[in-house]
Amino acid sequence: MVKKTLRRTYRVSKYVIYKETLVDYKEHFWSFLGAFFGIGVIAFLQSKYLLEQENIFLIGSFGASSVLIYGAIQSPLAQPRNLVGGHVLSALVGVTIYQIFPDIIWLSAPLAVALSIVLMQYTKTLHPPGGATALIAVSSPGKIADLGYWYVLSPVLSGCIILLLVALLFNNMTKNRSYPNSAKRRRISDKKHRHPLKN
Asked: Which residues cross the membrane (predicted)?
């Protein structure tokens, strides 16, 4: 019995170590292309069509979103509902908090992030970069603060749509990648991960 358990533990460990250290060059290639073009389109629009003093189309939280939607496409946190919903709801929270407490950063910053997390949890749109989107709304002086609720539409919503369209294109170019990840596929994938040595 002990021998059998040890053998199984060894096989599982070997499998996990193999999977964790496996370098999938094709996967990395498509992740790179998706992120490059997703951020590239937003950066291009910012540099070509916005005045220098209005260069706010490219916000930092889009970089974090790119990690998820191009590099971890099977994650529940990377799905379209989470990407768009998480950012938009967090932007709404951030702007609202800034309207109420415009000059009290020690209160507005933590309140914006904490409330955005709870709202994302409640609406099942949890997307970690959303916390950064809320924080940007309360901590960025100048043009972003002046935008008010327009911040929710642009750069946030418009940027999310660009990232999503690029993700839909590049994440579905091969048969090994599929995005968005349906609930059924997630259940099958979870089952395989829980029982890697069965079948």
From this structure: 28-45, 57-77, 83-101, 149-170
Question: By CB neighbour count within 10 A (0-12 exposed, 13-18 middle, 19+ buried), where does 95 fall?
Answer: buried
Please name the residue ranges forming H helices in the chain: 2-21, 25-49, 61-71, 80-100, 105-122, 129-139, 143-147, 150-151, 158-170, 183-194
Buried b (16+ CB within 10 A) or exposed e, 180-199: bbeeeeeeeeeeeeeeeeee
Q: How far apart are the first and last CA of the chain?
A: 22
- Residue 50 is which amino acid? L
User: Whose CA is closest to 181, among 35, 33, 76?
Assistant: 76
This prediction has a pTM of 0.80
Burial class (CB in 10 A: 0-12, 13-18, 19+), 7: exposed
**Domain chopping of the chain, boundaries:** 37-173
Each residue's pLDDT tens digit, 41-91: 999 998 887 765 555 788 999 999 999 999 999 999 999 999 999 999 999
Structure tokens at 57: 């189309």
CA–CA distance, 46 with 42 (Å, rounded to integer): 6
